[in-house]
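Q: What residues go here?
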């Protein structure tokens, strides 16, 4: 089984993925970590500084390709992966795609107190990105689970139940 978690920055992917993986006995794969590795250890911020979003997406698409036949894993993606149809084509291969979703107001609260994200300039810019990507998450997702007002355990339980129904 391969589960791919998609969703906007701050939707809960990175928090939920390892717990979900442990519960299902699957490997946890964090795409952002593999992107950092592919860039020779440059941080996400350094990757954006060096080559902008274009360079970041190239690395992300290359990592998605490497993962095309990767099985028995929960793959946690970066929020913008849905912007690349090539990356998504590789990621959805044989996978159940799960969207983690939260209203923008909640995202804003979670993100502002968290590590800086290069694409999260200000609230208006982030809101525009959120609206732009919303239909893309729906397009690719097999299952959609909201995370606001729920504990991590609640979300993990809900995802597991939804996956079992498939
Ligand atoms: C991005 C989200 C980040 C990271 C990069 C680009 C985006 O991941 O991949 O900064 O385009 O939304 P998270 O969704 O884990 O914050």
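A:
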């Amino acid at each position: 089984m391969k589960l791919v978690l998609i969703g906007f920055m701050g939707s809960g992917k990175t928090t939920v993925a390892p717990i979900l993986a442990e519960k299902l006995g699957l490997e946890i794969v964090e795409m952002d970590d593999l992107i950092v590795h592919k860039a020779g250890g440059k941080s996400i911020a350094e990757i954006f500084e060096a080559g902008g979003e274009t360079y970041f997406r190239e690395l992300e698409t290359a990592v998605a390709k490497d993962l095309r036949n990767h099985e028995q894993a929960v793959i946690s993606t970066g929020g913008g992966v849905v912007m690349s149809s090539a990356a998504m084509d590789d990621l959805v291969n044989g996978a159940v795609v799960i969207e983690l979703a939260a209203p923008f107001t909640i995202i804003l609260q979670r993100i502002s107190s968290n590590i800086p994200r290069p694409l999260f300039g200000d609230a208006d810019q982030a809101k525009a990105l959120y609206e732009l990507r919303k239909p893309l998450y729906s397009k690719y997702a097999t299952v959609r689970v909201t995370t606001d007002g729920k504990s991590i355990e609640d979300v993990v339980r809900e995802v597991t139940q939804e996956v079992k129904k498939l």
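A: Context that may help when evaluating the design: The radius of gyration is 15 Å. Residues 2-144 form a domain with the Rossmann fold fold (CATH 3.40.50.300).
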